[in-house]
Design goal:
Layout: H1 4-39, H2 49-81, H3 84-87, H4 93-122, H5 124-127, H6 131-138, H7 149-183, H8 190-224, H9 230-234, H10 237-268
Length: 270
């Protein structure tokens, strides 16, 4: 039986190429936008100077690329989840599934770290060497002189819960729709899958309202009042983090049950 660590290393060698591919695209996007800002400054309604432009832009650019990278890894995850070749490697399908999710989480962490290197370079003219700390402060992921380490850790945990929720939810939608259509007695199953997707989208939209409200708050809070802890007064993140943790635990349990009860028997009968 292949160990979890060996599965992790094999999947990591396959997924890391997408990290560097998206990172190169990110670099070229920054170069292109910089050249565009210099050559066509009148097309941008931003603060004066290139530094001011990037202070207003880099956070949204980071989030857009994070979403793109998350979509790529979701696609890669589901390829592995339904791959007979991968599932024949290990006797325990749940071990393969957990290694799959774990490698994607680590890949997201590395990609985000590489992004902050670029962001730190962009803010060097305005903040000097402190720019690499400033980018994490802007994302509320570094303790500022007015912040608490507890709050910073809670922000990190909240982001981890968001990413994990996306992966678990996509796997759940994939497993659930396929399981339902496999058990139907008739061939025309497209409308059933659409119905399942519609129900799951409602759940995803509700979770997305929590997620994107915080993303907007994280970006706008320092512009409204950089020294005020507004986010805790109006929207307690600890409560949303707890809710996300419970939801993730439920989805993870269901996904593991799907893998053990439906994916594993199919591979065994192959």
């Amino acid at each position: 039986m292949t160990s979890f660590w060996n599965l992790f290393k094999q999947m990591w060698s396959q997924k890391q190429r997408y990290i560097y591919l998206l990172f190169v695209v990110n670099i070229f996007t920054v170069i292109f936008m910089t050249v565009l800002r210099i050559t066509m400054p009148s097309n941008f309604s931003v603060n004066s100077g290139l530094t001011g432009y990037w202070e207003d832009t880099y956070m949204w650019l980071t989030i857009y690329f994070d979403i793109a990278f998350c979509a790529v890894t979701c696609w890669q995850n589901e390829k592995i989840n339904l791959s007979q070749s991968w599932h024949l490697v290990a006797a325990d399908e749940r071990k393969t599934y957990l290694a799959n999710v774990s490698t994607s989480m680590v890949a997201c962490a590395l990609f985000f770290f590489l992004q902050q290197i670029i962001n730190g370079i962009l803010l060097l003219p305005g903040y000097g060497l402190n720019s690499f700390i400033q980018v994490y402060r802007d994302f509320q992921l570094w303790p500022a002189h007015y912040g608490l380490m507890r709050d910073v850790l809670l922000h990190w945990l909240f982001i981890i819960m968001i990413i994990l929720l996306i992966y678990l939810f996509v796997s759940f939608a994939n497993f659930a729709s396929r399981m339902i259509t496999d058990f139907l007695p008739f061939k025309s199953t497209l409308w059933i899958r659409l119905l399942v997707i519609a129900i799951l989208v409602v759940v995803a939209v509700y979770s997305g309202l929590i997620i994107f409200s915080h993303l907007e708050t994280l970006i706008d809070i320092k512009r409204m009042s950089p020294h005020a802890n507004i986010i805790w007064q109006y929207d307690p993140m600890w409560l949303d983090t707890l809710i996300l943790f419970i939801v993730n635990l439920i989805f993870d349990s269901i996904d593991l049950w799907f893998v053990h009860s439906f994916v594993e028997p199919k591979i065994a009968n192959y």
